[in-house]
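[Automated response] Your request has been received and processed.

Submitted sequence:
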Amino acid sequence: MQFKLYTDVHEFYRDTYEVLMRHEAQNMIPLGNIIIGHEGKDKTDWRDPVNWLMVTISDAKGIQLTAIMTPPHNITLYATDNIMNPEAINCLIDGLDGREIPGVTTEKNLAEYFAKEYTLRKGITFKTTMSQRIYELTAVNPDIQKIGIVRLLDEKDIHFFPYWAEAFYAAASYGKTEMSIPQDAEPYLYRIASKKLYILEDDNGIPVSMAGYTREMQTAIGVAFVYTPPYECRKGYATSIVAQISQLALDKGFKKCVLYTDLANPTSNSIYRKIGYMPICDSLQLKFEW
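Generated structure:
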């Protein structure tokens, strides 16, 4: 097995893009990252490839394992064709010696195997921070009732959006109810300017739910950032906005929409299935504890 460490994101993109595309929906995170790095349009925060860890493990047949880490985030892995090769994983762990790896996020079986081998080697432990399911949709259920009007988030929403964003982050952090109070408008204006977030307004023009797009792939687009304030829940708003922006993405030419759900939230999983999302695999976020 050959451990190859990349310093040039364009070379890494060329070597791994077609491999990762074999499971486009499953690999939305690493694919999205290498596209960001290859295009070089946005180097804010973690997006500057100069700080990334990019590795492939290959044998005579080609790449067997792809790894990318965009600090401070977890390392993400893909075993080519989802065929797990213990020798390739051990080669990766050997090559990571001396590097700080906070955790791993990837397909469940690969995540568990890597974490067990890595922590055994390091004499540390790991814990699950989130059990996820990856879904994809190719057609929206035509029986879904469309409620309210969907529009792009814009600058006039700055009076409430930062609070919704922080509430979303808190809810996504393992069911917390405590949220940070926004102090600076800039990060939220950056989100608004991306023109990837949408608001659902009720019949009175009042914002009641939020959802948006994440990474854009060759044929797929990610759907995420789904949030409805607790006092507006159980009214069908989240179902409606996710269904509507999913259909909008398909109308734009994407062949499928992809989203990640927290398996600890049966309500959201049920909602997405009703819309037409079908599970393709489970994924784990594992944190290493030193």
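Summary generated for your ticket: The mean pLDDT is 95. The CA atoms of residues 152 and 198 lie 4 Å apart.
If you did not submit this request, please reply to this message.
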